[in-house]
Amino acid sequence: MNLEAPIESVKGVGEVLKSNLNRLGVFTVGDIIDYYPKRYEDYSDIHKISSIKPGIVTIRAVIKQASSKYVRRGMNITEAVASDESGSVRLIWFNQPYRANSIKKDEEYFIRGDFGLRRGRLSILSPTLELVSDFPVHSARIVPVYKLTKGVKSSQIRTIISNLRNSVSLVEETLPTWIIENNKLVGRSEALFKLHFPDNAIDVENAKKRLGFEEIFQLSLASEFNKLDLTNEKAPIVKFDQELAKKFVSSLDFDLTNAQKKAVWQIYKDIQSTSPMNRLLEGDVGSGKTIVACMSAIMAVNAGYQVAIMAPTEILARQHLESFTSLLKPIKMHKSVSLLLGKTNKNDRSKLLKDLKNDKVKIIIGTTSLIQDIVSLNNLSLIVIDEQHRFGVDQRKKLMSKSHKVPHVLSMTATPIPRSLALTLYGELDITVIDEKPANRLPIATSLVSPNSIKQMYDRIKDELNSGRQAIIVCPVIEDSSDEVNSVEKVYLKLSKGEFKKYKLGLLHGKQHSKNKEEVMQKFSDGEINLLVTTTVIEVGVDVPNATVIAVLSPERFGLAQIHQLRGRVGRSHYQSYCYLVLSDSNSPSRRMRALATKSSGFKLSELDLEIRGPGAIYGTIQHGALDLRIANLSDVKLIESAKNSAKLFIENKEKLSNYPHLSDNVNKLRKITNFN
Ligand code: ADP
Ligand code: MG
């Protein structure tokens, strides 16, 4: 059958099934061949009746007789006897009276079901039957299981694809021959055939390798092409002024870490060139990324350009304003910094916009308020995007388009990106990692707290508060009517009336008015609040060095990277800091929770999360549209590297994308949704 033929032209696909398949995106014969199994069940082991043991078994046997009877009202039993040359066994179905008539007597079947003691006799319960043929569909082979969804059963898809077995060979190759050969891949149609009709586990592996390779290859190619485009653009040259850099560094009351120095140095090199910088600065919480951003900014300002700094929240933007102002004071640049928030009032706003236009304001810090239409930044040479994963592609692009120059872009994140993801999703970026913390920091002591030792934890927190430190309690939700969930409102009320009556408590969550939020944050910063009860709004950026304890309630609800970020709110000074993960029940803690207590590297944790929970775990923290890979395993670094190398070669060899129509379609789609174009 022709691959373009409508799905309803396949034998057995009626109106209802057709429309259900359409809803899965399956319209043609080609579409269903391209529909991948979710997993497999190995039904290839066929046993002699004389040797079967209790459990799920498959036999090949002739059914001699079958009868059905009502033992009482509403209870029908169908019984049959199946025999092979080694013996006989009874088959039983409950309440399936149609069975007796549908069984073809004296025919040979593959019979699969649960063998065991039933009503005092050994029988196979509720077996599935399939007439023996050269190409069994549902039994006697490694059976693919398709996602059961929207009214389409796995067995229906199996039947359709089996009917199309001969059409799979019509599927055309989509990759260049040299790529298939270099990477020892099977051809596309062979891969699809093996995927639906594997003879063994190796077939499945080869099929997945080929199709997964293709997915990553497309993604890599998209980012290579995006990169290529960028090299044709020209950004302003920001010349390096050594005196200024020295002056800034000597005004700090600490030494930069080596990692910070390296990062700054690399950025200075990047921005001295006309090819636009597109660098991701990745550094664990508290590793001191702000200073790196600030040092980049001063060079741009010194060269006569403007800088825009976008942060995901108002709290964070405000904090950047404070940090920048105090960092810039000694070099007398602090007057050229300004803040633009969504709620900045009309008068201030129009003054600010004017100052931006006439170049009085050199460094503008804000939230997504910066991308509003009225803001124009004509003299922009550098954009800093803090916590970049919190922004969408469109938002980043919009900010870049604020200037008619192509700006250099420095993205920053504290979310450690596993190497495999860095290679695929972030393929277009140059990455610098700050892998070192300021020297005076002690590791944060993390412990798991079972629900019945919460009282002791409160006592430990009080000890800290009594010695002048501050603490944070993070709750999973804002409000909740049920009793089971620790909502921030409930916990705040409970603690301020009970356990922590004698202390000053603050409440902070995302639904508060921003004025409220700021007031609370300011008070916490100033040390007027001892204990802050909050949600994950506290997650990013908040820098209160005097805070030394953070307790996370129901930590199982969060991703590991997220908890690691939360934990980074403490340990920002020379004081020993503590993180308590208050488990939801007293069962033994999961591997993920144990990892938090033993591992202090954000990288290790996010790799573990990727392994245990899959890319979905990072879904929450990294925005993307490209992660919807259907088959490639994102922790397979080897596969990713080879696909990436092939993409590079494709470009180097000056291969024409238009020679590969299928590839070209997909790559062009991906180019629009990969992160940095
Ligand atoms: P993050 O990387 O999480 O954004 P910040 O830039 O907020 O970290 O820095 C955290 C704290 O560490 C700030 O108070 C900052 O002043 C301080 N800091 C940064 N670099 C150093 C350093 N080299 N030595 C000591 N303290 C530093
Ligand atoms: Mg920061």
Summarize the structure in words.
With 677 residues, the protein is an alpha/beta fold. It contains 23 helices and 20 strands. The protein has a seven-stranded parallel sheet, with helices on both faces. A six-stranded parallel sheet has the order 15-20-19-16-18-17, sandwiched between helices. Strand 3 (75-84) and strand 4 form a beta hairpin. The protein is globular. It starts with 14 loop residues before the first helix and ends with a helix. Magnesium ion is lined by residues 289-290, 386, 541.
SSE map:
Elements: H1 15-23, H2 29-33, E1 39-42, E2 55-72, E3 75-84, E4 87-94, H3 98-102, E5 108-118, E6 121-131, E7 142-145, H4 154-163, H5 177-182, H6 188-196, H7 201-231, H8 242-251, H9 258-271, E8 278-283, H10 289-302, E9 306-310, H11 314-328, E10 337-340, H12 346-357, E11 363-366, E12 380-385, H13 393-400, E13 408-413, H14 419-424, E14 430-434, E15 445-449, H15 454-466, E16 470-474, H16 488-497, E17 505-508, H17 514-525, E18 531-534, E19 547-553, H18 560-567, E20 578-582, H19 591-598, H20 602-613, H21 616-619, H22 637-652, H23 661-673
Parallel strand pairs: 4-6, 8-13, 8-14, 9-11, 9-12, 10-11, 12-13, 15-20, 16-18, 16-19, 17-18, 19-20
Antiparallel strand pairs: 1-7, 2-3, 2-5, 3-4, 5-6
Helix pairs in contact: 6-7, 7-22, 7-23, 9-10, 10-11, 18-20
The protein binds adenosine-5'-diphosphate (ADP) and magnesium ion.
